[in-house]
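RETRY 2/3 - previous attempt timed out on the joint model. Re-submitting the same 649-residue input unchanged.
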Amino acid sequence: MSLSNENAQAYWSENLRIITTYLTIWFVVSYGCGVLFVDALDQIQFFGFPLGFWFAQQGSIFVFVGLIWAYVFSMNKLDEKYDVHE
Amino acid sequence: MSLDALTFLFVGGSFALYIGIAIWARAGSTKEFYVAGGGVPPIANGMATAADWMSAASFISLAGIVSFVGRDASAYLMGWTGGYVLLAMLLAPYLRKFGKFTVPDFIGDRYYSNTARTIAVVCTIIISFTYVAGQMRGVGIVFSRYLHVDINTGVIIGMTIVFFYAVLGGMKGITYTQVAQYCVLILAFMVPAIFLSLQVTGHLLPQTALGATLDNGQSVLATLDKLSVELGFAQYTAGSKTTIDLFFMTAALMAGTAGLPHVIVRFFTVPRVKDARASAGWALIFIAILYTSVPGVAGFGRVNLIQTVNGVENTGREYSEIPAWFERWESTGLIKWEDKNSDGKVFYSKTEENELTVNRDIMVLANPEIAQLPNWVIALVAAGAVAAALSTAAGLLLVISTSISHDLMKKTINPNLSEKQELLYARGAAVVAILVAGYFGVNPPGFVAQVVALAFGLAASSVFPAILMGIFSKRMNTAGAVSGMITGLVVTVAYIVYFKFMGGTSDQWFLGISPEGFGTVGMILNFVVAKVVSSMTAEPPTEIQQIVEDIRIPRGAGAASSH
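RETRY 2/3 succeeded.
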């Protein structure tokens, strides 16, 4: 491995920070908007959907797709920054 | 051309395609057989993963479940897609860097223990057989409904096709047939879905059509709520499950999805770590196309059904006025009408006056006819349903055969096995697995629906936590991982068996959590027990800690063989 120990540590902690950020959003849209606060959100109408219902059946899935791609791009950038890409 | 001729043409044509691909992609080495040589491009792997993942249940039954259950079915929609976020960020890239062939491979090597490996093999085999039984049955049912052959004949035809490309081609054959099967199944799902949403709402996309305004000036969902309440059903957009149960169910389905061995191995087949991340992204796009259309299909399918059967007044309709599809599906038993009050009118409701029994699968299977679409669309749906079932079955059979030939024979029982012998064992195990799956297809155990909870519960409570800790905790050792896995496994299985097979009732549920959601509790216990036990025992050897450091860095995942 060409990577120094310190760099490997720094790479890993930045990776963990990225994962934590995205998984927080993941949790909020699915378990938050789709389960825990769904009744409150249902009071709001969104293009003909009660908002909570929309998050639970469609919205969260769109956000999931966006999250994985955001993660893909963040990690590609991080890999280059630490020169660990292939 | 008649409907039967068209169906033969579509289904037969798709089979010819799969067999052609199988012959082209024959596997020559164990690496090709297990992981397609490790050279699959990410988009292709994304499609293959989507086909691998979307089974007969996703294609045929999911829209029906949403349609008849409404809001509470959200747990399936979120659970079966949200798991990919976990897979992409927490498992796939590191497992690809680790660069072995199977899930038990990782667990066995990382925890330097054949006990851990064997537990993982047992989980893999139980999960996969649970799943595959339903697929073979699905193929048989589609054949019997569309081609009027016996269900058993249908199962045998399905077995023969899978035999061809799984045994000959291994992962390489499976991967490229799955790509073709994805194209067939997504076309077969989306064409009727788009036609239907155009007819009902004038919107092209089922995703936005569910919120559209109908002729009565109200949205589809508001109309559904009104119709449902009039007929005594629960309001469509309101749920009846408790928040805690919904929460735990969604979590169990997500962690279970991320821990399914046949999905995980797909990420071993790409050349680089960044390709593993990207293929998770592609996979979820391809899955989301179907999954975000499902609520639409479910919604207007239900409006259509109620209005067709009950008439504009929602009070019942003369049997003679009901369109021809009704009679056709009566003959298959998916719809049953019993004229209780002998008024010659069909009436559907939740109350005692109800005269109709409807199988949920009708929402997808009969939709093209309800919407009066041309015959080729109906033939396409048949080919799509078969593609969904076969692609999932093949992925599962491969996982079963590799965990026997590689993890059990080569790694545990006889390490001196040559590559040629191992490949022979892999093919032999695939043959046996197909025969067992076929047996379950012909003689379905009465509990297929119940054991799905078991497959996800097992994956969530044993496989997922073990892999996760193997990557994110350098300190996790054999004793911790093994005791954690056993705890998660035993607690989850016991709970599911008690409530599904031994007559436990819902008022006895722990904290109100249903068996479907209990995998989450098993997972939490797994984490806690593993943490406590590992902190009281010696830390893992330096070379294991070195492995963990190594899988966290993408570079050096190993050159791929070209295709």
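The longest strand of chain A covers residues 45-46. Closing ticket.
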